[in-house]
Structures are given as structure tokens and as C-alpha cells.
Amino acid sequence: MDIATLIGIIAGIAAVIGGFLWEGGQLSGLMQEAAALIVFGGTIAAVVASFPAHRLRTIPAALRMAFGRTNNDTGLWVKELVEMSSIARRSGVLALERKVMDYPHPFLQDGIQMVVDGTDQDVVRQILEMEIDSVEQKHEGYAKIFESAGGYAPTMGIIGTVMGLIQVLGSLTDPTGLGPAIAVAFTATLYGVASANLIFLPIASKIKSRGADEVQTMEMLLEGVLAIQNGENPQLVRKRLESFTLTHRGHIRPLAKEGLDESAQ
Questions:
Q1: CA 58, 61, 66: angle at the middle one, nearest 5?
Q2: Which residue(s) pair with 245 in the sheet?
Q3: Which of 86, 99, 139, 258 is most exposed by smallest CB count within 10 Å?
């Protein structure tokens, strides 16, 4: 498990509760079952109504992506690709067939297998780019579910508060109970805003960040596979892959690629 995600959520909730207690509040004042039912029950219902069943079944995978560990060690993949390029230069791409199944990344396995099979380079690029687009869309789908929850939760909090105030205004005959009743009503707003900004939206952001990292790795592997297919010098392959950097869209691109190509000629 990626403990940073869990620590961040727990720390945020603790900060809110701690600040409330610091100001002299009572913890029991935050425990309102009716407000929790309205906010969390309503948010879950709204999310279920917003997405088809096959999208909702991806929630466990999305949570694993947000809280689990990932293996996007680009340095390791650069080393592996340089080693493969050395083998391909020395013994031909067919020599990679014996090693292709040893690599744990299925995207890399697919790319090298197509190279070994003699697939045209344009076809290799097109197929692998389609795989990257598919993965990117899948991750965007994961994040949208939690972004939607983050949008619905504050609204459900307001609904809960309005319902509480309606109840308060209906019992004006007892002025002594107005203060506590209004406080209870606004607890729903607190639940909605806090859950959106401390749970749902941070999870969506973490999924997007993890997705961008995975796309970056896949883009780098694609470039490495094509370089191996071209029979490029291993040192040139290393320089090209190490020059990759994130763009503002979350993708990566090889820097100074033209200069490297010129030096290889």
C-alpha cells in the first residue's frame, strides 16, 4: 500500500477535527447520524445514478490504483531497453524472442514480440499508441467517478442543511433549542465539503497522477521498442530515453531528438 495517500487523508481529517476541538467544540457535536446518511447516502446514490454498472465495477481497481504501490521505475526500464538494444545489434532482433517473456511489463512484451515477428514499424507504433490511449482513457474513467462524488458531496451537504433549517423553523415555539438545532443542521454542510476536499477529490487527483506516470512509462517503452527495431546504437538509445520529460499535458516527449538523430548519422 502507498501509505502517503492514507496518511494525507487521515492527517486532513485529523486537522479539521483538531481545529474544531481546539476552539472548544465537543466531538459529540460532529457525530450526527442523520447528516451522515443524507450526505454519504445521497452522494453514493448520485454516483450510482450517474454511471453505468460496468463503470461502477471499476471502483475497486480505482482504489487499488490510488492506495496501492506502483512499479514505474523508469531507470530500470531504460537499463532493460539498452540491454535489449545491445542484444539486437549484436545478434539480431530474433535473439530477443528468448528473452521477451522474461519482462514483466505486458506492454513491453507486446512491442518486442511485434518487432521479433517483423511487423512494420508504422503498425507497431499505431498498435502501441492505441494501447496507451486505452490505458489513459481507463484512468480518466477511474478519476471521473471520484470527481463526481467530490462534486455531489457538498451539494448533498447543503441539502442536508436546508432540511435541518426547515425543521428548525418549524419548531420556533422552543427558542432555547434553536442554537443546537441550527448547529446540527450545518453539520451536513461540513460533512459534504470535508469529504469532497479531503477524500473524494484527493483520490481523483492521485489516480490522475498515477495515470500520468504510467503513460509516461509506456511512452518511453514505445520509443525504446522503435529504437531497437531501427537497430540504433545502445548509447544513443540510452540518451534518447533519458531525455524524456513530462509535458504540460501529462505526456512525455523526447527532447533534442533531432540532434540525436543527426549525431547518429
A1: 125
A2: 253
A3: 258
Q: Return d(Cα 150, Cα 200) in angstroms, integer.
A: 5
Task: Give how far Cα 248 sits from Cα of 39, 101, 251, Å.
Answer: 35, 34, 7
10 Å CB burial of residue 30 (0-12, 13-18, 19+) is: middle
The predicted-structure confidence for 52-89, as pLDDT tens digits, reads as follows 999 999 999 999 988 887 766 677 778 888 888 888 88
Decide: residue 231, CB within 10 A, 0-12 exposed, 13-18 middle, 19+ buried: exposed
Q: Nine-digit cell at 259? A: 540532434
C-alpha 228: how far from chain center: 30
How far is the C-alpha of 84 from the C-alpha of 81, rounded, in Å?
5
Is residue 112 exposed (0-12), middle (13-18) or buried (19+ Cβ within 10 Å)? buried
Torsion of the alpha carbons at 191, 208, 52 and 161, rounded to the nearest 10: 10
Q: Which three cell numbers stand for residue 38?
A: 443524507
Query: Distances from the Cα of 210 to the Cαs of 61, 62, 203, in angstroms?
Result: 13, 11, 10
Give the H or E element holding residue 184: helix 178-195
